[in-house]
TrEMBL record:
Sequence similarity: Belongs to the LDH/MDH superfamily. MDH type 3 family.
Protein name per Swiss-Prot or TrEMBL: Malate dehydrogenase
Coiled coil region boundaries: none
Domain Lactate/malate dehydrogenase C-terminal: 148-308
Any Pfam family the entry gives: Ldh_1_N
Gene Ontology MF terms: L-lactate dehydrogenase (NAD+) activity; L-malate dehydrogenase (NAD+) activity
Annotated function: Catalyzes the reversible oxidation of malate to oxaloacetate.
Biological process terms in GO annotation: lactate metabolic process; tricarboxylic acid cycle
EC number annotated for this UniProt entry: 1.1.1.37
Organism the protein comes from: Kuenenia stuttgartiensis
Residue intervals of the Lactate/malate dehydrogenase N-terminal domain: 5-143
Positions annotated as active site in the UniProt record: H176 (proton acceptor)
């Protein structure tokens, strides 16, 4: 069977760590692209040289141009500026809109059939940029955030209860920002609702820590943002697509009426398979959850209006 081709745009913290993780899993051959001369070539060669020790045969190429990325099956966009302490993700809107626009124009030309996974922040708005510029169908444009947010929620619950992360199914909806909606009602531990195991007041603190999970790391690192957990979350998406798992995972996808949201990218449970977003998985929300999701969607809408102005749409 021919190997799949995965391109990673941006060979910084997220892109390079993601490349390492993907290489170790032998999910396909990789191209790592960055605008910095020689750097992606150096990181690609370094990861390739770990292959004999780890026992993987992944081919990985570094690039500064798009010729090498031609006909990729999946392209992950991590290029862009990361925030520093004191900044919000939204502060990156203007600069990263320009970067994601330029990258997407190139990818749409060289890999017209690719599935795009967007990582650059502000995530929901950058996913919208990639959609608008590529004009790809909605199933082939997926933003990474929900898996990361749910992983943080799970990690905190695991620490609280002293049980394995494998027993925890955390559920998060909404945009990748302060208004994200971690659902305590649908979060379970070995099938038991978390609300039955952790007192509501403590649970509220854990939800708040989850909402601020990105900023917590930014404040510790000081020079940039998280990359180990984010790259792990992207691997889960790539794997679900390449193995056609039809896995339900929270991702940023274009809602066209689902959850009462129209023409907006927002975090919802989707079914990930070989076509990308195979479907949006709709579940019943109660009044409180619906209101919180709508509030989050409205914030994303504001940002997308700014994107429209920047792109002249
Ligand atoms: N969706 C999410 O949950 C997460 C999103 N992020 C976002 O991902 C982005 C990348 O984060 P890091 O890797 O930590 O940043 P980084 O600064 O380590 O790497 C970014 C890389 O992008 C490259 N780049 C810039 N313009 C480019 C272009 N036009 N073409 C190709 N490469 C280009 C830079 O040279 C740099 O190597 C940031 O916007 C960050 O906010 C980071 C973590 C989680
Ligand atoms: O917080 C940031 O800027 C990066 C990010 O999106 C995250 O780690 O959730």
């Amino acid at each position: 069977m021919a190997r799949k081709k995965i391109t990673i745009i941006g060979a910084g913290n997220v892109g390079a760590t993601l490349s390492q993780r993907l290489a170790e899993k032998e999910l396909g051959d990789l191209v790592l692209l960055d605008i910095v001369q020689d750097m992606p070539q150096g990181k690609a060669l370094d990861i390739l040289e770990a292959g004999p020790v780890y026992g993987y045969n992944t081919k990985i190429t570094g690039a500064n141009g798009y010729e090498e990325t031609k006909d990729s099956d999946i392209v992950v966009i991590t290029s862009g500026v990361s925030r520093k302490p004191g900044m919000s993700r939204d502060d990156l809107l203007q600069i990263n809109t320009g970067i994601v626009k330029g990258v997407t124009e190139n990818i749409a030309k060289t890999s017209p059939n690719a599935i795009l996974i967007i990582v650059s922040n502000p995530l929901d708005a950058m996913t919208y940029v990639a959609y608008k510029i590529s004009k790809f169908p909605r199933r082939r444009i997926i933003g990474m955030a929900g898996i990361l947010d749910a992983a943080r929620f799970s990690a905190f619950i695991s620490m609280e209860l002293g049980v394995s992360v494998e027993n925890i199914h955390a559920f998060v909806l909404g945009g990748h920002g302060d208004t994200m909606v971690p659902s305590t009602r649908y979060t379970t531990i070995a099938g038991v609702p978390v609300e039955e195991l952790i007192p509501q007041e403590r649970l509220n603190e854990i939800v708040e820590r989850t909402r601020n999970g990105g900023a917590e790391i930014v404040n510790l690192l000081k020079t940039g943002s998280a990359f180990y957990a984010p790259s792990a979350a992207v691997v889960e998406m790539v794997e679900a697509v390449l193995k056609d798992k039809r896995k339900i995972a929270p991702c940023t996808a274009l809602c066209e009426g689902e959850y009462g949201i129209n023409n907006l990218f927002v975090g919802v449970p989707v079914i990930l398979g070989s076509n990308g977003v195979e479907d949006i998985f709709e579940i019943k929300l109660n009044e409180k959850e619906s209101v919180a999701l709508q509030k989050s969607a409205n914030e994303v809408k504001q940002l997308c209006n700014k994107v429209d102005a920047l792109l002249g749409l």
